[in-house]
Amino acid sequence: MALRKDLEALATALGIADRVHFAGHQLNPYPWMQHARLFVLSSTHEGLGIVLLEALACGTPVVSVDCPGGVRDIMHGELSAYLSEMTPEALAHRVDTTLDAGRYTIDERWLDAFSPTQVTAKFLQEPPDS
Predict the structure, then answer these.
(1) Could you give the CA distance from residue 98 to residue 16 in angstroms, rounded to a whole number?
(2) By the 8 A CB rule, do 84 and 64 touch?
(3) I need a surface site. Which of 19, 79, 98, 107 has the fewest CB within 10 A?
(4) Rounded to an integer, what distance in angstroms lies between the CA atom of residue 128 and that of residue 116?
């Protein structure tokens, strides 16, 4: 709770308190994602980055740092334009340019490789000869 008070004080000091919401834990984050203008992932490491897929499935554009892990498994092709280097300045720039360009359209094909049918098919494939 002390961190929240510090963050609220910082938002006030920065003059953005009227635009910052401290919603706390949400049992269902999807309505929040669906109504967001942009989902931003700023992890220093991310497994697959399922949260990126969840945001895209909600129809919300994403921006992510190019961190180690599976982010590039999702953020490739057209989506690679929404990756940034792992610095606060680079991420802020990517967020600003993405918001300035307006909401981009989500291509359902970006999610196809992660559908249950595709994942199951890949899992059941015989391993390549060694």
Answers:
(1) 20
(2) yes
(3) 19
(4) 22
Per-residue pLDDT of the chain (130 residues; tens, 9 = 90+): 689 999 999 999 999 999 999 988 999 999 999 999 999 999 999 999 999 999 999 999 999 999 999 999 999 999 999 999 999 999 999 999 999 999 899 999 999 989 999 889 888 886 766 5
Asked if 82 and 106 count as a contact pair (C-beta separation under 8 A), the reply is no
- The tokens for 24 are 């706390």
The domain ranges of the chain are: 38-117
HSE of 75 in the Cβ direction (CA atoms, 13 Å)?
26
Amino acid at 46: E
